[in-house]
Write a structure and sequence with these properties.
Rossmann fold, globular, five-stranded parallel sheet, alpha/beta, 349 residues, 2 domains
C-alpha cells in the first residue's frame, strides 16, 4: 500500500481526532470572531489549502453572511501594495505553515489591526506564530506530497468554526457524524472504482471536473489531485461556466468527473450532466443520489454516504476523487507518493 493510500484511509480517524481535540481552540477563535465582528474575510492559502478557502467562501457566505475574498499575497510580497485589511478576519490555511507569502499576509493583517487566525497542521510553524489564534488540524504526519487527510481536516475545521461563530448547537450532530460518513464513503469508493469504471480515464491526457456551490471547491481539489498524481490536464469548472465556452471541447469519449450532491445546486448539475451526456462524454459521477447511476453514468458512479448535509458534503465528496487519482496514477505506472517535480513543503514568495 502506498503512503498516499494509507493517509487517505486514515481520514476517519484523523477527523475524529480533530473533533475531539480541536473544539476548545475552535470555540476560542469563534468567540474572538463574534467579539471582533469582522466586515469580511480574507483567506491566505496555496494549493489544496486554497481549495479549502474556496469552500470557506460558500460556507461563511451562506451560514455566517460574510463576504470571503481569496487573498492575493503577491500584492504584499512582490508589489509592495498591501490592500486595506482593516475590519477583516484574515485566515491562513496551510498544512505546513511554512510558505513566506502566506505568512506575510497574516503579518500584514495583524499590523493593520485585523483579526488573524491560522488553521495549520504544524502549530510551531511561522504561520501559527504570525496569527493571534491557531486551530490545530490534528491530522498527524502527512508524508505523501499530495494532500489528503490535511485537506479534509481543513474543511472540517472551517465547518466547526462556522457553526461555532453562528452558535448553531444543532450542527453538532452532523459534524460528529462526519468521520463515520467518510468511512462509509471510503468503503463505497473502494468497491465502486473498478478497473472498468476508471478505464476511460487511465490514458486520458485531458478531462474536465465539474461541481457547483459548496462542491465548486471539490472540483478544484479533485482536478489538482489528478494533475499532481498523473500529470494529466484536468480542468475544473462550475457547471454554469461549462456553458460559457468549455462545452465546445467535449465530444464523444471525452472524460468528465462530476460532483453532484443533493441540494440547491443539484438540478443545475443534472442539466450539465445531460448536456455532456448528449455529446457522448465518458462520465464518472460522485454523488449521494443513486438515480444518477442509471440516468447518466451507467459506466461510472460512486455513491457517497447518505445523510450528509450539503454544507458538509465536500468532506465526503473528495474522498472518491482521492482514491480515483491514486488508482489512475498506479495504472499509469507512476508513484503517487512522489509526483515528478513536486515537494511536500513548498515555500513561495
Amino acid at each position: 500500500m502506498t503512503r498516499l493510500e494509507q493517509e487517505i484511509r486514515e481520514q476517519p480517524v484523523s477527523l475524529e481526532r480533530l473533533l475531539r481535540g480541536g473544539r476548545a481552540a475552535v470555540e476560542e477563535a469563534a468567540a474572538a470572531v463574534r467579539a471582533f465582528q469582522p466586515r469580511f474575510v480574507v483567506t491566505a492559502a496555496r494549493g489544496s489549502s486554497d481549495n479549502a478557502a474556496r469552500y470557506a467562501k460558500y460556507l461563511f457566505g451562506m451560514r455566517n453572511r460574510l463576504v470571503v475574498s481569496l487573498g492575493a499575497p503577491s500584492l504584499i510580497t512582490l508589489y509592495g501594495a498591501p490592500p486595506s485589511l482593516a475590519g477583516a478576519l484574515v485566515v491562513g490555511i496551510s498544512q505546513s505553515g511554512e510558505s513566506p507569502d502566506i505568512v506575510a499576509l497574516l503579518e500584514e493583517g495583524r499590523r493593520q489591526g485585523a483579526l488573524t487566525l491560522a488553521l495549520c497542521n504544524q502549530t510551531d510553524s511561522p504561520l501559527a506564530r504570525a496569527a493571534a489564534h491557531v486551530i490545530d488540524l490534528h491530522a498527524g504526519p502527512e508524508e505523501s506530497v499530495a494532500a489528503s487527510k490535511s485537506y479534509t481536516a481543513e474543511l472540517l475545521a472551517l465547518a466547526m468554526l462556522s457553526a461555532a461563530i453562528e452558535g448553531d448547537r444543532t450542527a453538532a450532530a452532523p459534524l460528529d457524524a462526519i468521520p463515520d460518513a467518510v468511512d462509509r464513503t471510503l468503503a463505497s469508493a473502494s468497491a465502486g472504482l473498478t478497473d472498468a469504471v476508471l478505464a476511460p480515464f487511465v490514458l486520458a491526457d485531458r478531462l474536465v471536473v465539474l461541481g457547483r456551490g459548496f462542491n465548486f471547491a471539490t472540483a478544484f481539489e479533485l482536478a489538482l489531485k489528478i494533475k499532481e498524481t498523473t500529470g494529466a490536464t484536468a480542468e475544473p469548472y462550475a457547471t454554469p461556466d461549462l456553458f460559457h465556452g468549455p462545452l465546445a471541447m467535449i465530444d464523444a469519449g471525452f472524460p468528465a468527473l462530476v460532483i453532484a450532491h443533493r441540494g440547491p445546486a443539484f438540478e443545475d448539475t443534472r442539466r450539465a450532466l445531460q448536456a455532456i451526456a448528449t455529446r457522448g462524454a465518458e462520465i464518472l459521477t460522485i454523488s449521494d443520489d443513486p438515480s444518477l447511476r442509471t440516468d447518466f453514468a451507467a459506466g461510472g458512479h460512486v455513491l457517497t454516504a447518505a445523510g450528509v448535509p450539503e454544507w458538509l458534503s465536500p468532506i465526503t465528496a473528495i474522498v472518491p476523487g482521492q482514491l480515483a487519482a491514486l488508482r489512475l496514477a498506479l495504472a499509469r505506472g507512476l508513484d503517487p507518493d512522489r509526483p515528478v517535480g513536486l515537494a511536500k513543503v513548498t515555500r513561495t514568495h
